[in-house]
Specification:
Two copies of one chain form a homodimer. Chain A has helices at about 10-25, 35-45, 50-55, 70-80, 110-115, 130-135, 150-165, 175-195, and strands at about 1-5, 25-30, 50, 60-65, 85-90, 95, 100-105, 120-125, 145, 170, 200-205. Chain A is an alpha/beta fold. The first copy, chain A, has an eight-stranded mixed beta sheet, with helices on both faces.
């Protein structure tokens, strides 16, 4: 498939683009607000680069991999260009405190709020994959994906399956994004507490 | 330690009591609204039985293992008897729909609401352990525990470490309960989708 990675010059977006490029099965285009930075990152990874709005043209799936505070503004900015193209939301809002990391106190997930801003279907996932774990090689982790639209979820699962050694798993409706986004804070807390590079594996699958 | 399991006649409470009894390191007392049912379940498991309010007397840790819709009323009911005893909240509210299971739409976790009702410190955890997985033997899963009070969290981690073959892990402040409680819905969705008995393992620990 053809995939746009919006925010593809950030640490997570770049690592995801590198993994997809290495898997070699998709056409990857990196999007950025700054076309020069997109072009530089794209050249480094051997993929295409463009502005966010250009990057989403003609793709099968767009990945909203910008930082959490840019997720809503970027969704607003690209909504027109994106049209009905499926979108995968991977952002998690975190608030850092001396005693631990907290997820966004807002009840509704970023993914659910994004879904109200764009015309196409939204899936959410990859929240437990750290950029650092993803950067070198496909990590020995599972990737959880949720969504209300079967097609968007299927595309997102297909993408997720290419970047981890474990399973890409359907975690239910888009409402599961509340838990998945909150898991990012849990992962960061585990990393701090145990000096770990934590990820998840689901046990008990048939 | 001495542990009270409130709602110890339910499927999760009973499985947890059985695992602790098998580990043999704690004094376990099962609490129930109905003292006769508590006594029957306790006799079956070889532990003590009492009403919820009696069960918490003199324990090191009380586990609030009632069903989600009983968590808040039970916390109110036992608050006086519990005093400053640490409490471990394990409930997750779920709403079942044709297209998947959703976590409680309330922004605040059950654990955070419980913490406002009792005088002692509250930890939250064990949300990814299914009663069915816990019932037969210690499952090959990790258990996640969070909390703002170091003592309550330490006691909860000690208990969690006795009932799983994997690690008992500190997942950060009590605010992490939002993600942990939401994970129960994710686990149920995975079970439905893959006919699984899903649990979690954290990868990347040192």
């Amino acid at each position: 498939m053809r995939v746009a990675i919006l925010g593809g010059t950030g640490s997570f977006g770049r690592a995801l683009a590198a993994r997809l490029a290495a898997a070699g099965e998709d056409e990857v285009v990196i999007g950025s607000r700054d076309p020069a930075r997109a072009a530089a990152a794209a050249a480094e990874l051997g993929v295409e680069g463009a502005t966010n709005a250009e990057a989403v043209q003609g793709v099968d799936l767009a990945v909203l991999a910008v930082k959490a505070d840019a997720a809503i503004p970027t969704a607003e900015e690209i909504a027109g260009a994106l049209g009905e193209t499926p979108l995968l939301s991977v952002a998690s809002a975190l608030s850092f405190g001396a005693d631990g990391v907290r997820a966004d106190p807002d009840a509704r997930s970023i993914a659910e709020r994004v879904a109200e801003l764009v015309r196409g279907p939204v899936a959410a996932g990859l929240h437990t994959l750290a950029a650092a774990n993803l950067a070198a090689e496909p990590p020995d982790e599972d990737a959880l994906v949720c969504g209300d639209d079967p097609r968007a979820k299927e595309l997102a699962l297909e993408l997720a399956g290419r970047v981890v050694r474990g399973h890409a798993l359907d975690a239910g409706p888009l409402a599961s994004a509340r838990a998945l986004e909150g898991l990012t804070a849990v992962i960061v807390n585990l990393n701090r507490r145990y000096r770990a590079h934590a990820g998840l594996r689901v046990t008990g699958l048939p």
